Amino acid sequence: MKTNHSYTFIVLLCLISFFGNSQALKIQHDLVVAKDGSGDFRYIQDAIDAVRVYLPNQITIRIKKGIYKEKVTIPSTLSNIAIIGEDSTVISYNDFSGKGKMETFDSYTLRVLGNDITLENLIIENTAGRVGQAVALHIEGDRCVIKKCSFLGNQDTIFAAGDNSRQHFVDCYIEGTVDFIFGSATVLFENCVIHSKTNGYVTATSTPKWVNYGYVFKNCKLTASADVNKVYLGRPWRSYAKTVFINCQLGKHILPEGWDPWGKVENEKTTFYAEYGSTGEGAKTDARVGWSHQLTEKQISEYTLENIFSGNPNPALNAFWHQPAHFGITGKVDTSYSNYSAYLNSKKSHPVTEIVPEKSLPSVLESKNITYGKIGNRALLLDVFSPKKKSEKPLPAVMIIHGGGWRTGNRTQHYQLARRLAEQGYVCFTPEYRLSTEALYPAAVHDLKTALRWMRENATEWNIDVDKIAVLGFSAGGELASFMGVTAENPTYEGANGNLKFSSKVQAIVDIDGTLSFVHPESGEGNDSKGTSAATYWFGYPKKDNPQLWDEASPLFHVGANTPPTLFLNSSVDRMHAGRDDFRKVLDQYKIYSEVHTFADAPHSFCLFNPWFEPTVKYISAFLKKTLAIK
């Protein structure tokens, strides 16, 4: 039998081409996983296995709600993946050390070995019970972000490892019994709840000697089950363990000595265990072990996100932390938006635009550069404009929030408005807040609520009526003012700075051309093809990658029975009042008073300039007198 060599050669070429280009057949677009078959895959691991290795751009795998009983691995060849669940998305498994030939590091439910992985809105659990080491999350990837996730387990719940890996946990819930957060990675835990189910140890770090930071807990809350009363903050798994708690709330279950050396005296000489500014019954430092540390003001200033994630002393491994670079966290002040730049822009389309003269008023007292809060060594400042004439009764107060796309602008923007309102009997506060060049959402909300609580705490000094406080803002400041009004006293948005004993509630909202919804059809935010809108920089995610965050950050998402009366002052730019009419429908439903005044053929920045400035002042004053019952 003769062989057709030409045919064989062609077949071989085809096979080589197929296998040589197999990655070209791999998926590099967004996917949906759904147990009911309504998505692209029924199983999470199947979706991960289908994705192209070394992705050039981030893709999102959305996992619909349900319990996925899977043991899942994201291999080291996969990167740039966001895995986002719905409210009830659970990844569950029950392996444990000692099950067959299994060891601790094989017992995971989810293992993340790839870099640049984002996890969000997931419940990850190990249901093996109290049988020893049983890991829920095993994560070794670098530059990984974990947001709004819950990790359920007992001993060794989270293994955060990788000598050169950096991981950021935000707004997460983590529970366990013994050493339930352990490993060698550099990890920042922010605004997390850390829950001890039994007496034991929260952390067991194995930080390499040459790594600067280890585990850092900022603004976290440490809680425990009712019968738990003997918990250590940590013990060293390896000799150079580093763990620091900053501005955390420590429950009474935390032992007075705080830390344990794991039975080795030499560990007391090499570990770095430290605290700063924590509160609660477990935060008393007078009985702490002598080899632990209380950070100084100078030391605490070094614990910034940029420093923690800037890399390690090993120069060959000092890759740059991707998220701040990509989303523009520079730490520098952006001065591109000012009243003058807005004037030049408005003058082009509206020649009648004229600058309102900046001048002090003889009847108004100005007090400037007052510190209302601190983030590390970063002072947060505000200015106060109040009537010079003494009043026998407390006066109504107005917080005025500047605009600038959450990225630029400054508190001097509305000085003249503050003066005019102070002239009419209001005490006006103009606070600064961290912009997106310095910190992502919701840092600005936290700062402004800190300022509001500061106003109440210092009400006597400034002679203000704590039951008559309004919040007013323009553009991004209008959105922030509305958001503050609809989320008053909601612990999710309060932050951990300032005196939490005082309320963040307001009695009136004035929204000047601030969007009410980032996801409304009328909104222009996030719809640009490059994904570089102001809101994208503020949230750290394009809308398509995290629509739930964009929705929850919208005032329209939270409006309800407790929303205060609201005044809307709008330009003729329709997209700047996206969601306003729907917002008002909810107010009407609850019989809450609202007003709308639209300035025909007016630019977005109308409130800053003549001929619109004085009518703006009159509308605000009339609304506040009515809603705050001012006589």
Automatic annotation (TrEMBL):
EC number(s) given by UniProt: 3.1.1.11
Domain Pectinesterase catalytic: 30-311
Catalytic activity field: [(1->4)-alpha-D-galacturonosyl methyl ester](n) + n H2O = [(1->4)-alpha-D-galacturonosyl](n) + n methanol + n H(+)
Gene3D superfamilies in UniProt: alpha/beta hydrolase, Single-stranded right-handed beta-helix, Pectin lyase-like
Keyword Zinc-finger applies: no
Record: active site: 179
Domain BD-FAE-like: 382-575
Pathway, per record: Glycan metabolism; pectin degradation; 2-dehydro-3-deoxy-D-gluconate from pectin: step 1/5
Entry-linked PROSITE patterns: PECTINESTERASE_2
InterPro entries hit by this protein: AB_hydrolase_fold, BD-FAE-like_dom, Pectin_lyas_fold, Pectin_lyase_fold/virulence, Pectinesterase_Asp_AS, Pectinesterase_cat
Swiss-Prot/TrEMBL keywords: Aspartyl esterase, Hydrolase
Pfam family, one: Pectinesterase
Catalytic EC class: hydrolase
Membership in a protein family: Belongs to the pectinesterase family.
Name under which the protein is recorded: Pectinesterase
Provenance organism: Arcicella aquatica
